[in-house]
Specification:
Helices cover 37% and strands 22% of the residues. Strands 7-6-1-3-2-8 form a 6-stranded mixed sheet, covered by helices on one side. The protein has a two-stranded antiparallel ribbon with strand order 4-5. Strand 6, helix 4 and strand 7 form a beta-alpha-beta unit.
């Protein structure tokens, strides 16, 4: 199994989109890239801790290549928006890729280069070393499945899931 940590706006959306993909074994919503241990959702939402809402995606690389995982990431969010995704504004919603080592950083750089071919304008996705990871509170895990009719899920998460379904149909769970 491979594990990758990505941030691209609200973690509920990334979580929901990756869960429909075959080969994804687990998605964990959490916080990384900031200061202070064990931040709460409320603290992260202020932007004061510097943490990003992120997901840890655990996947089987034999069934789902890393390049596809990363191309999905750049499909489901707008990497040109600095410290925001739509109406979610603040550094906690930044577009970021958290690398474990130089080899992973190189893979991430290649993914950014590919995305630059699809997106007009400047890609602002940051590459950051993966520091401490903190799982988000339990109610954030698999939030969309638990709250499918919640307004934010319908307005923001569903379109992201639909982008993955449309662009990566051959990688969807049966």
């Amino acid at each position: 199994m491979q594990e990758i940590v990505l941030a691209g706006g609200c973690f509920w959306c990334l979580d929901a989109a990756y869960r429909v993909v075959d080969g994804v074994q687990e998605v964990v919503s959490g916080y990384t890239g900031g200061r202070g241990a064990h931040p709460s959702y409320e603290q992260v939402c202020t932007g004061a801790t510097g943490h990003a809402e992120a997901v840890k995606v655990v996947y089987d690389e034999e069934r789902l290549p890393t390049d596809v995982v990363l191309d999905m990431f750049f499909t489901m969010h707008d990497p040109r928006q600095l410290n925001r995704q739509g109406n979610d504004v603040g550094t906690q919603y930044r577009s970021a890729m958290f690398y474990r080592d130089e080899a992973e950083k190189t893979v991430f750089e290649a993914a950014i280069a590919r995305a630059a071919d699809w997106w007009p304008g400047e890609i602002v996705t940051t590459l950051e070393p993966l520091g401490a990871w903190y799982d988000a509170e339990e109610y954030h895990q698999d939030f969309f499945a638990k709250n499918p009719t919640q307004g934010y899920c319908l307005a923001v998460a569903v379109p992201k899931v639909n982008k993955i379904r449309a662009g990566f149909a051959s990688y969807l769970k049966g």
